[in-house]
Structure formats: C-alpha cells, structure tokens
Amino acid sequence: MHYTKEEINSMAAANTFGELPVSITKNENLENLLKLDLPEAIKDPVSNDDLYHRYFVKNAFWHKIPAFASITEEEFLDVKFQNKNTVRKVEKLIELVGEIAPGGFIDDVKEGMELAPMNLSISPYILSLIDWNDPYHDPLRIQFIPVNSRRVADHPKLTLDSLGEQGDSPVPGLVHRYFDKVLFLPLDVCPVYCRFCTRSYAIGGNTETVDKVKFTNAPQKWNDAFAYIASRPEIEDVVISGGDAYMLAPDRLRLIGNTLLDIPHVRRMRFATKGPAVMPMKILSDQKWTDALVEIVDKGRKMGKEVVLHTHFNSPNEISDITRRAMLHLFKKGITVRNQSVLIKGVNDTAEKMIHLIRKLSYMNVQPYYVYQHDMVSGTEDLRTSVGQTVELEKVIRGVTAGFNTPLFVTDAPGGGGKRDVHSYDYYDETTGISVYRSPSVDDSKLYIYFDPIDTLPASGQKLWEDESLHEELINNAIKSSGFTSLTPVL
Ligand code: SF4
User: Fold this and answer.
1) CB 139 within 8 A of CB 315
2) Strand pairing class (427-429; 418-421)
3) Strand ranges (DSSP E) for 373-470?
4) Ligand 1, from 197, 377, 412: best to mutate by most atoms within 8 Å of Cβ?
C-alpha cells in the first residue's frame, strides 16, 4: 500500500487513518505538502497488517463477561470498580467466567493453584481481554492463571529467590547490588499477581507451597532503608518497586518521593509498576494518585533530578485504547515511561509478537527498555525459553525500529550477578543448556550460571539431565570450557 494524494486527502477529510481507528486531522502543513509532486517510492508498499500496532481496541470488550454485560464505560474506567471486582479466589473466577470458559478449564485452574508459588489476582480489565474461547493459548491467561495440565517439571536448579536478592539486603526491603543503585521494596502487594514473578519468595501472601518473606507497607519500617541510602554517598539511583507502586496511597508515594529527593546524592528515581498494563484506567480516574506522581516528577525536575515511571507490558493484547489514553495523559504531563518485559513462552517469544509489542509501545511514547530472559523461578518452567532462542530473537528485533526504542535483551544472572547482555556469555552449550556469565562490575571473583529449560534441549541433552549423578560433571565441564576455572561458580 502507498498512499496517493487523493487517499491522504480523503482520510484527512474523514478524520481516519486507513482502516485503523487512528485519527489524523486536516491541516495547512499537510495540505501544502500535497501540492507538491509525491516522490517515487523506493520501498515496497506496506499493508494495513504492517501498521497493525496503530490499532487500539476501542469497543466495550468487557461486555463479553456476563457479569459485566451492562457495565458502562464510566463504571469500567472507575478504579474502584476494578479493585472491587479483582479476582482473588477461584470461586470468583467461576462466578465471572464459569459460563464462558471451556469445560474442564476451571478444574484445571483449581489443580494448578495447588502448586502455584503465586496467589491469584486478576483485574477485571485483564479478565475481559482474555479470549475465553481459547484461554489455554491466550497470552494474558498464560501470565496470570496457572493450569495444571500445562505444568512442566522444574529444572533441578530452579529456586524461589533465583536472583539472590536476600543476600544483597543491608536492611529488609532494600537490595544494594550495583555500585550506585539500590532497589527499594516498600510493599509486597500488586494490583495483579504474575505467575512468573521474580519475587515469588515475597510477593502476594502465602500460598499452599510457599511461606513468603514479608515487606511492610508501613512508613516507620522504611526509615532504616532511607537511613542506609542517606549514609551511602555512592547511591545515585533508586528503583522503588516491590510489590507495586500502584498500590501505594498518594501520601505514601509523596513521602517516599520527597524523602529520597531530599537526599542530596540521589539523582535518579524510578517508580516501578505493572499498573499501566493491567489497570490503565487508574491513571485516568485516580486523580489523587496520578497528581502525587506528577508532583514528585515536577519537583525532581526543578531540583535537576530525574523521576520516571518503569512499567511492565509483556503482550500487545494487554494494550487497549484505555491504555493509549492513559499513556498520553502521562506524556502530556511530562512523565517518561519505560517498559521492561519478561520473555515468556506463548506470550511474546516470536518475532511477530515482540515486534508488534515494541511498535505499539513506541507509538504510545513508552520506551521499550529491557526484555528479560525469564528468571529461574520454581513453578514456572512452562514459561521459560532457552538462551539460544532469546539470542535469535534479539537478532531479528535489532534494526526493526530506532535504537532508543529497541530493548536490550538481558539475563539477570542467577545468584546475584545482575543484568548481562543475553549474548555476552563466556560459554554456552545448546545441548546441556548451560550458559556461563561473568559480571566483573558486581563481583569479579564469581561465575554465574543459567540453565535452559530441559524440555527445550535436544533429546541427547534431555537424556543427560535424566541422570542426577551426571549433573555436577555437566556443570564442571561448562565452567572448564568457559576458561574461567579460577573463579567461583554461584550455584
Ligand atoms: S506486578 Fe511485578 S512484583 Fe507484582 S507479581 Fe507481577 S512481576 Fe511480581
């Protein structure tokens, strides 16, 4: 498809953009351009499919949930409706989608929950975007609702705290791993609970299989973390995560923001929230929360300090016109939003899906910043991909759009090595699925090892892992082949 002058003119007149519901308005500059001869095209024509990322779901998609069939847009956009109707128990799931889910699905969920490391929590927004004709393949169902039938046995090296965060905590709720950056975890609750959460060891209350470490949403408990940050002059960068900054009341958001801004050496702050991906209407309808965020960002800017929002979209299916409006609101208020995705099997592990996500985020002025290799978290083995697959995906993605909108593909090195470019391993064996990384800026005496899911290995590799007595030898061989036997492996 090329646009001719006539087509551009008629689209501008009709206030539409092709068949996609994105508006362009007739204006003088455009009209002046159309008076010129259009230059000859040097690129192949594009189709509407190529521009599909500009499509944002606008209809009342929540009406397909029987209990929401008469809910108006105003009600659905109200964050109180979203909080009140969030699904936290299987009984509520049955009440809302029991009629429209395929037979046997709910029983599958009940069995899946028995071994899941995370509790159930799904916003009405996400629930309404799931394709209930085929929930097994739906990228949102895959992220938030466990089913027993898709369970894959854990790799023997999986743990709940795969990043070793607790070992780098000077005080509870604070992680100091990198020289100039800390991770502050002021709370342990989120608007939804993701099956793949890196902090399954702490987030979202005990499950049948996991007793969680507690972070408290109580300001008096945060003082130790603030005091530590104030006492360490090298700390310039603070990530406020958890848990999720969406769940902080506006006065607590302000308290954290103001306290950290008042520490002279803190130069950068990032509030981390999955909220825009799972409950975007909060930004539009919870004015007090959004105003508190804008206030901190503005105050920081006046002080010459950067305060931004980091969010977590994984699938273009999470994005609707409500999201577009919410992101536009933040953009107009001058708030920078960056995105950190997790690479998840069945969600965003193909070039087509990842390109769609990246283009859609860029279109909304959300910068695609990181794509994480899935952490080695227990109970999530059906969601991980191999390092080899991620490296291939990265090759296709780089060059698809501008560099600043191209995410870095990283492995968060297990055991506390921090983020490594996924392809920067010192050794990788596709048969055993073992990759070996160094992280000299975090600890130059250590080696960090990532293990691919066994079901992604060739048959010969899968066979090797069947014999437990061979495991140590497989790891030792990989270390030897990396050439760094003098370093200590973190296992
Ligand atoms: S929102 Fe973030 S912290 Fe909360 S469960 Fe999901 S991944 Fe974990």
Assistant:
1) yes
2) unpaired
3) 408-413, 418-421, 427-429, 434-439, 443-451
4) 197
Q: Which parts of 364-434 fold into alpha helices (H)? A: 387-397
Which tens digit of pLDDT belongs to each residue from 408-427?
999 999 988 999 999 999 99
Residues β-bridged to residue 441: none
- Of the candidates 225, 272, 386, 285, the residue with the CA atom closest to the CA atom of residue 73: 285
Residues 6 or more apart whose CB falls under 8 angstroms from that of 426 comprise: 436, 437, 438, 447, 482, 483, 484
- The pTM of this model reads 0.93
The residue extents of the domains of the chain are 5-45, 61-150, 165-421
Nearest CA to ligand 1 atom 3: 243
What does each C-alpha distance from 91 to 1, 96, 106 come to in angstroms?
50, 9, 10
CATH 3.20.20.70: does it fit domain 165-421? yes
Distance, CA of 7 to CA of 487 (rounded, Å)? 64
Retrieve residue 468's tokens.
């437990």
Q: How far is CA 387 from the centre of its chain?
A: 18
Ligand 1 atom closest to residue 190's alpha carbon, by position in its atom list? 4
CB of 195 closer than 6 angstroms to any ligand 1 atom: no
Beta partners for residue 76, in sequence order: none
Annotate 143-163 with three-state secondary structure.
HHCCCHHHCCCCCCCCECCCC
Retrieve residue 412's tokens.
Answer: 């968060």
**How many beta carbons lie within 10 A of that of residue 246, not counting itself?**
25
Three-class SS state of 46: coil
- The Cα-based distances of 428 to 141, 387, 415, 432 in angstroms read 32, 8, 18, 9
pLDDT of residue 95: 96
In whole angstroms, what is the distance from residue 437 CA to residue 472 CA?
18
Whether the CB-CB separation of 321 and 117 falls below 8 Å is answered with: no
Tokens at 277, concatenated: 């991906």
**Both structure tokens of 337:** 């939003």
Ligand 1 centre to CA of 93 (Å) is 20
pLDDT digits (tens, 9 = 90+) for 71-104: 999 999 999 999 999 999 999 999 999 999 999 9
273, 218 Cβ separation under 8 angstroms: no
- Tell me the DSSP string of 178-236: STTEEEE------SS--TT-TTTTTTTS--SS-PPP-----HHHHHHHHHHHHH-TT--
The length of the chain in residues reads 491
Strand pairing report for 434-439 and 443-451: antiparallel
Residue 274 alpha carbon, nearest atom of ligand 1: 1
Helices (H), ranges, 307-411: 321-332, 351-363, 387-397
The answer to whether the beta carbons of residues 120 and 225 sit under 8 Å apart is no
Tokens, residue 315: 């699938």
Average pLDDT, the chain: 91
How many CB atoms neighbour CB 152 within 10 A? 16
